[in-house]
Design brief:
Layout (H helix, E strand, L loop, with lengths): L1 E2 L12 E2 L5 E2 L1 E6 L8 H12 L17 E8 L2 E10 L3 H4 L11 E5 L20 E2 L2 E5 L9 H12 L2 H11 L2 H14 L9 E5 L6 E5 L25 H9 L4 H13 L5 H17 L2 H8 L7 H23 L2 H5 L9 E2 L6 E4 L2 H4 L3 E6 L4 E6 L4 E3 L6 E7 L2 E7 L1
Antiparallel strand pairs: 1-4, 2-3, 4-6, 5-6, 7-9, 7-10, 8-9, 10-11, 12-13, 13-16, 14-15, 14-17, 17-18
Helix pairs in contact: 1-5, 8-10
Length: about 400
């Protein structure tokens, strides 16, 4: 945490502005020592801002979904200290929450510990004499204005203890649906295990408005853990108590909606080639400008070799394959395909070839075939109106191409 002053005593703060970020006196300077390529958390932050827009932005045009970041090389008293990620603070000002006017309006609490509150597994009693409760730090209102956990506690209590009927009927009145969908996709794309509860801000724009999430501290993602070690596991869905209930109860046809959204994103900014190209471009920029050479001066224990890049690109490929199978396996989703670009396969079942009904829509696009376990068994590019599946064993399969999914059976 860095604060800029007008003088050496700190009596008066000084606003400064960096890159395309806001003008402010209070900043976060995040060491990247635990990131093998110095890319993951910065890229993840940009991805969240591209993916999500605050639901109330028509009312608050300057509201942001999360903090903007910029790379900064740091010197302290003439000594080089390596590459850092400079970012804005996540606060009332960034999110444009309604200010305290004597009544409790906008709220912001920060998940900082693994406890029942942050993991949505319980709602213990609270104490308004403390700014900390069940894993959360209260960030707004300020301490000198008000400390009141009653609304946050009531929301957590509803998530954990409400009846199934009440949960299905009211959860999206209490928590913003679009934010939930985007955060679930974002969390699981990154497989950011620390951000299932602890590294999340829980916020409310105004009185009687729904809560929503904003992530922070995204250093353990895309195949690494928070301490910089590799986590080569690319399968599984990250969950907490709230996610468990949403998946189990499927309020507002959630399974169909999140599947549709996933494949819409996959055909745009979550396209595998676009993701990989963006990461490789950043790596090449660092390599070309000798950033990694300078990093070795400060952190000689890291190699910064191209094999590190191959690791993250391979992990992303496997993760996308798994998530395509997960979201594509929803029967609800497949019962409601995009009518305009509906992908139909025939004959189905088949013994040797699968033909397409809409070659113009998918021509030249990469395809993947997954078995019933979500394991990729074939891949390629569509250049004719059929795929040869003679080598596949008997069973059910999912074809993924251009954001569309279709099941087929091989005898």
């Amino acid at each position: 945490d860095i604060e800029f002053w007008e003088d050496s005593t700190g009596d008066e703060n000084m606003n400064v502005q960096f890159a395309e970020m806001r003008s402010d006196d209070d900043w976060v300077l995040d060491a990247l020592y635990n990131e093998p390529l110095r890319i993951r958390s910065h890229f993840a932050s940009m991805l969240w801002s591209e993916m999500h827009t605050p639901y109330y932005q028509d009312l608050e045009p300057k509201a942001q979904a999360g903090a903007k970041t910029a790379y900064a090389e740091v010197f302290i008293n003439g000594s080089y200290n390596g590459l850092y990620d400079l970012s804005e603070q996540v606060d009332r000002k960034l999110l444009k929450l309604k200010s305290f006017d004597g009544t409790l309006r906008g709220q912001l609490v920060k998940g900082v510990g693994w406890e029942p509150g942050t993991y949505f597994s319980g709602s213990p009693n609270f104490n308004n004499d403390s700014r900390y409760w069940s894993g959360y730090d209260m960030k707004y209102p300020k301490a000198e204005e008000l400390t009141d956990w009653s609304n946050v506690h009531a929301f957590l209590d509803f998530v954990v203890n409400s009846s199934d009927h009440d949960f299905k009927d009211s959860i999206w009145h209490k928590f913003n649906y679009d934010n939930y969908l985007d955060y679930f996709i974002f969390l699981n794309l990154l497989r950011a295990s620390d951000n299932t509860g602890k590294n999340i801000y829980l916020a409310r724009y105004d009185v009687d408005e729904p809560y929503f999430n904003t992530p922070w501290d995204l250093d353990g993602c895309f195949g690494t853990l928070w301490n910089g070690t590799y986590d080569n596991f690319s399968e599984g869905i990250l969950r907490n108590g709230m996610i468990d209930r949403v998946i189990a109860l499927d309020p507002s046809d959630y399974q169909a909606t999140v599947s549709t959204r996933w494949f819409n994103y996959r055909s745009s900014f979550l396209d595998e080639q676009k993701l990989e190209a963006a990461i490789e471009e950043q790596f090449n920029y660092f390599e070309r400008n000798r950033q990694y050479e300078r990093e070795r001066l400060v952190f000689p224990n890291y190699s910064f070799e191209r094999q590190e890049l191959k690791y993250i690109l391979n992990w992303i490929n496997r993760r996308l394959t798994y998530l395509d199978a997960y979201f594509g396996s929803s029967s609800t989703y497949n019962d409601k395909p995009n009518i305009e670009n509906n992908l139909t396969l025939y004959p189905n079942p088949t013994t040797d070839h699968i033909h397409f009904n809409n070659l113009d829509f998918i021509s030249g696009r990469p395809y993947k075939i997954l078995n019933s376990l979500g394991i990729m068994v074939d891949r390629g590019y569509v250049d004719v109106d059929y795929i040869n599946v003679e080598k596949l064993e008997s069973g059910m399969y999912i074809l993924l191409v251009n954001g569309q999914t279709a099941r087929f059976k091989v005898y």
